[in-house]
Each structure stands twice: as structure tokens, then as C-alpha cells.
Amino acid sequence: MSGKILIVDELATNRIVLKVKLSSAYYDVLQAKTGADALRIIAAECPDLILASAKLTDFEGPTFIKAVRKLETTAKTPVVLILPSVKAEDRIAALSAGADDVLCNPLDETFLLARLRSLLRQGNIDKDLRIHAGTAHALGFAEVQGHFQRNGRVALVSRKQNKAMALFSALSASGQHAFVALNAESAVGLAEGTDVPDVFILGIDSEDVDDGLRLLAELKAARRTRNCPIIAILEPSSRSLAATVLDMGANDVMCGVEDLKELLLRLSNQMHHKHMADQMRDQLQLGLNAAVIDPLTGVHNRRYALPFLKRLIDTLDHETETFAVMVADLDHFKNINDTYGHAAGDQVLKGVASQLRASLREDDMLARIGGEEFLIVTPNSTRAQARQTASRLCRIIQRTPISVPGRMDPIGITISIGVTMAVPGAGCLAPTVESLLDQADRALYGSKAHGRNTVTVCALSAA
Q1: Which of 2, 103, 104, 225 has the fewest CB atoms lying closer than 10 Å?
Q2: Which residue has the higher pLDDT, 307 or 285?
Q3: CATH 3.40.50.2300 segments of the chain
Q4: Per its UniProt record, what Gene3D superfamilies does this chain match (predicted)?
């Protein structure tokens, strides 16, 4: 995994040793002697990860982390602090200041590289989500969301129920988050409709390492839990497994829980990442929806409809069913705009779209493809069924005038529909999106020519 890593350490020998280790793992390495030097390099180079000594000549570790977090370019960049000792208070101070992890000298090279891979992997995922969600927001597809830490739902999973319940009781007493204890089967088989935990704390016992690793893999692969951070808790005797656990997808790992506050800080860090990722995914989904939904009527737009039609065409070689393509156009719609105003015309369009959508099957597709023109695609329809559906839609629209704010009487409206059929090739040229739309349009012209408020089915099947 490539990436740009900044090493911050006042001792040249430490920097050189780390650079050799990281360069051999194909990382681009930057170096800084002081915190001030590091901040200048950060502003110029935007590293993917910062690996810093806790003892700098001009900064204490926690103070340096806070300075990094204040910079817009590195507010979300993973920061690992290297401590000279294993004192619990130093670890707590670093994590409280915003460190993603704290490591102690002497560094275990295997674990160090695994931890860096894990943090860079998560950092790249977060970066991609920010880019896509940011694009959606820039296009006006997403609301600005507040950034705040909130409690979440945490599941403790372990085969040793006595240890799990002891940890469950201690964590629950903290007053942070909502904790639930699950067995392995319940964790993997979360039923649809069941609340999925935000974070898993997974206990891996030395006697059941294979089962624990298998459970980790299953949680990271399952559709409903694959985006949930996992904090793996190993027994001190299984410390050598830490690198393996990280490479298998765990977001964090602890060898025993010597200090509950440290676990809670690590948990809050993962909870924050999860909430932010969920928020960005929601913004992205809003953007995707907005890109294929007509904002006035709430039905699909041309951008969605044409690929949908193409996908149906692509199945014709493998299926015997035919499908219908209809183009519906509101009759004399210009007169409505001229007589009642464009606001009333918009209400009519919305009302007609709502009636059409309510009158179609769940698998049918409805899209607004022009000013007052709608495309309707009905899969698995015969010619007779398509004509029957189109005629029914005409009757429904004619019998249901549209209420418009500011007018006592609703506005009556009719539609004309042109229909064509798509059938398997059977030795003929396969239909195309263009040919289907052209034939439906020609049929629509026939309906307009025959007095409107009627249905015309194309004499030729698109094949």
C-alpha cells in the first residue's frame, strides 16, 4: 500500500531507522525535526499519515496533535504518537488530544506496518467518501450537517460470556453509549429490521483464535455489518496476533483492557468515524437520488429512464417476455400555463405524475422526459395488456381534475399516449432505445392527430 508518511522526531537516528522500515514497505517518507518544521511540511505536502514522537523540542505530543487538528488539510489525517513508555496517563492524554493510536518504544516492526496499513486504508475510505459527498453538496444535493459527537450502539461479542459480561457491566456504568452483549451467531445473523450496532467490540480468546478470526472476517464481509468498525480485544498472551487482526479488517486492537478509559477513548474515536462515514454516505445517496429524480414531480428523469430502458433491452435475448414503451403527453398544456399561470401548470404536472405513479405496477417505470411528456415502461406486458393499461391511464387522468391552490374549481386535463412493443429479436434487428422512443413518439403523434385523449399502438413491434 503506497502513501506519504511524515516522520516527526528530533533524533536523526530515530528518523533514519523509521525511514528505512517505511521505505522498504514502499511508502514515500517525509521527515521533520521539530513540530514547527512538521507543520510547515504538512501545509506544503499534505501527508497521508503522521508518525510523531511524543517528545519534541517545541511541542509536547498532545499539543502537537491539537495543532495538527486545527489545520484544515490534516484535520482528518491519521496521527500516530510514539511514546517513550507505556504509562497509562500518557496514552490517555494522547488519545484525548485526538491521536488515532499510540505506540511505545521499542516499536514492533510487524505491528507498526500493520497499524499503518489499517489507518491508511480507513483514511483512504474516508477521503473518498468526503470527495463524493462534497461533490453532492456542491451540486446542491445535500444539506450541511452539524459535526458533533453523539452516543451510539455498541455490541460486545465474545465466546467467553463471563469476561464479556464483566466488560459489559463496566462499560455500561460509564454512561457512554448503549451496550448490548451478543453471541457470535447473533452478531453475524442480525435479522433485517434489527438495529445494527455502530461499533463491535470483539473478544478473541487464545483458546478459540480460529473462531475469533473467522467471526471477524464474517462481520467485515456481511452486508449489514461490513461498514461497522471493529475493536478487537486480544489476550496479552496473543499479542503476536495483533498485526493479523488489523490486516483482516479490524479498525483497532488492544491486548487486554488495562484501563477502561483508554478503551472508551478508542471506542469514541471509532464511533466518530462511523457517524461521519454514515453522514457522508447519506449525503452521497441524496446526491445520487437527486441526479435521477425530477425535482418537480418526484418521478424519475431522463438520466435514469434511458439506462433503465437499455437494461431491459439487454435482457431480451435471454427472456421470452415482451415489454411496452409508452410516451404520454398532456393535452393543451400550454393553454393551462397561459390561462392559469406557470405555478398552476406545475401543480398540474405534479398531480398528473402522482396519478400515473399510483396507477402503475411496482415494477413499472415512470419518468418525466420533457416539459409535459412522460415515459412509461411496463415490463412483461403483451400488446393487449399495454393498450389496456394506456387506455386506463387516459381514463384516470380525464376523470381526476387537479386541485390548484388559489382556485376553487380543479383544472381538468387529458393525456394522449403512444405505445410500442419491444420483443426478442427472433432473427430481426434487436430494438434500441432510439428506435423504441421513435416508434412511441410516432404513435403519440397519431393520438394527437386523432383528437387527443386517446391511445395509439405502433403497428410495428420494435425488433
Answers
A1: 2
A2: 307
A3: 1-107, 143-283
A4: 3.30.70.270, 3.40.50.2300
